[in-house]
Amino acid sequence: MRDDGPVSPISVLIADDSALFREELRMALARETAIVVVGAVDGHQAAGVTEALRPDILLLAVSRLGQAALDTLPVIRKQSPNTHVLILSEESDDEFIGNALQLGAKGCVSKTVDYKDLVKALWTIYAGEMWAGRKLLAGILESLRQKTQEINQPFSETQSTLTIREQEIVRWVIRGMTNKQIAAQLEISDKTVKAHLSNIFSKLKINRRLQLALYRIVELTD
């Protein structure tokens, strides 16, 4: 067990429609002495088994479950409020994952994630923090941008417009640049970039929980 880990192992429940993937993931995590897989079920059983076992973490695959996975999240939060949900997704699920974070997921990783990063993600959300990648931030902003006719036009009479500088920052974020790189490109400070991102999140009407997740991505990747 890690010196900085908890006294008790982390209990993990795996939920994925692929029996083969569930077994591969279970066997991989079995190598960790500080992680105990308490079950491996298909997605439709996730809520019921989570309520019964109350694991520390639910690894919930979303690539094949679609809307059913989103519908499960509020149920899981109500039935087992101390269970943290880590989403397993495909690379193309940016908009879906954004919705999942708003509904209570603590983070997300790709199904192709390196094993070490998966373990790190488990420990991170077990500690009560968010876990996601910079690419997710770019994907969420791109998805939101595509939903609007023009990013520099108001979404409604009550919604604000993005300034020219904010539009520039969105474009650089979508290209995968960090805050430091954006600051250098625009010849402004890191602090100013973060302030612009805060305004962008608010103007795009991203709810408070997702804002916190996105802020966490910004902090982790600079």
Automatic annotation (TrEMBL):
Pfam families: GerE (PF00196), Response_reg (PF00072). Residues 155-220 form the HTH luxR-type domain. SUPFAM superfamilies: CheY-like. One of its GO terms (biological process) is regulation of DNA-templated transcription. The keyword Mitochondrion does not apply. It comes from the Bacteria. Residues 11-126 form the Response regulatory domain. GO terms for molecular function: DNA binding. Keywords: DNA-binding, Phosphoprotein. PROSITE patterns: HTH_LUXR_1, HTH_LUXR_2, RESPONSE_REGULATORY. This is LuxR family two component transcriptional regulator.
